[in-house]
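Hi R.,

As promised on Friday, here is the backbone we talked about, encoded as structure tokens. Could you run it through your design pipeline when you get a chance and send me back a sequence?
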């Protein structure tokens, strides 16, 4: 059982993701944007974040940067339907910024569940040692 945060401004996407994860008995917490997700992550131990790229307030790309800086052990699955930019470009950028994997929306059981399982089964990276100042 893992703690997974689903971050998307669309409540329907959050509901679908939660339902797709239900058979695996994960603890699923929902957040509507990056700001809310970061507050949730600061308050509890989280294993994986499913993160939409296009959201109001703090978008997915900004959230990835902050997560990698402060919580590098958390796995990130970036998701997007693309918007004006296109899903491929957004998801490529997400990978460059530190996402562990990507999926194009809409989420489908045959790709979503196996991707989540694979990400959760990977060993966590060792904590980074900070040298010098904060």
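Update: got your reply. Pasting your designed sequence below so it's all in one thread:
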């Amino acid at each position: 059982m893992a703690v997974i945060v689903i971050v998307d401004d669309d409540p329907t996407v959050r509901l679908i993701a939660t339902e797709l994860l239900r058979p695996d008995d994960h603890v699923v917490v929902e957040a509507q944007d990056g700001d809310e997700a970061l507050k949730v992550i600061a308050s509890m131990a989280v294993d994986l974040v499913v993160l939409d790229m296009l959201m109001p307030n703090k978008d997915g790309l900004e959230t990835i940067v902050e997560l990698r800086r402060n919580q590098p052990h958390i796995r990130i699955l970036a998701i997007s339907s693309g918007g004006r930019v296109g899903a491929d470009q957004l998801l490529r950028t997400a990978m460059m910024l530190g996402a562990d994997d990507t999926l194009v929306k809409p989420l489908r059981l045959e790709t979503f569940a196996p991707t989540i399982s694979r990400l959760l089964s990977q060993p966590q990276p060792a904590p980074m040692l900070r040298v010098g100042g904060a």
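One thing I noticed while checking it: The radius of gyration is 14 Å.

Thanks again,
M.
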